[in-house]
């Protein structure tokens, strides 16, 4: 529409029952747009929610063991590690030493190596075992194929909800309202530039 007075731009917005929104305040003259601001805020929130849903969040689970662990307890803890890796999460395995056990770190190292060899099909060692005071720490991460299948399983669980949203007639995230654009000459300036329809 070009440069028009601010009062005229406000009158145009009132005539078509839209809001006059400043989209580029630093431009000279400032650029304004005629739009339904409530609908714009709703669509922005929808886009932000969609972006958060598609975002990968790295979760690190922790499993604590002792060097003199019972075989059954070891199998139970290994089962938890396997479940975490299948879910696509990283696992921090901590061996806790107490008293004289600290003089035998090779026991903890052997236990971590055994665990590593038993889960090679699901994950790999991201951080090698290292002594950290009274503890020995190793970080396991899932293979990409395992992580991809976990993400696909999570996405398939959300499928019915997405279909319900489509059937309810909710507006698409990328749609923008039909509106003209306006550029105001300034807050106190007598003119505004409008463009659009």
UniProtKB/TrEMBL annotation:
Q: Where is the Translation initiation factor 3 N-terminal domain?
A: 1-51
A Pfam match: IF3_C
Q: Is Cytoplasm there in the keyword field?
A: yes
Q: Which residues form a coiled coil?
A: none
Q: Does the keyword Disulfide bond apply?
A: no
Q: From the Swiss-Prot or TrEMBL record, what is one GO molecular function term?
A: translation initiation factor activity
Q: Where in the cell is it found?
A: Cytoplasm
Sorted UniProt keywords: Cytoplasm, Initiation factor, Protein biosynthesis
Biological process terms from the Gene Ontology for this record are: ribosome disassembly
Known InterPro entries for this protein? T_IF-3_C_sf, T_IF-3_N_sf, Translation_initiation_fac_3, Translation_initiation_fac_3_C, Translation_initiation_fac_3_N
Q: Which residue ranges does the record assign to the Translation initiation factor 3 C-terminal domain?
A: 59-143
* Region of interest (Disordered), ranges: 151-197
Please list the residue ranges that the record marks as compositionally biased, kind Low complexity.
Answer: 167-197
The cellular component terms of Gene Ontology attached to this UniProt record, alphabetical and capped at eight, are: cytosol; membrane
Q: Which domain of life is it from?
A: Bacteria
What is the role of this chain?
Answer: IF-3 binds to the 30S ribosomal subunit and shifts the equilibrium between 70S ribosomes and their 50S and 30S subunits in favor of the free subunits, thus enhancing the availability of 30S subunits on which protein synthesis initiation begins.
**Which NCBIfam families does its entry note?**
infC
Family as reported in the entry's similarity comment: Belongs to the IF-3 family.
- Quaternary arrangement and interactors, per the entry? Monomer.
Protein name, as recorded: Translation initiation factor IF-3
Name the gene for this chain.
Answer: infC
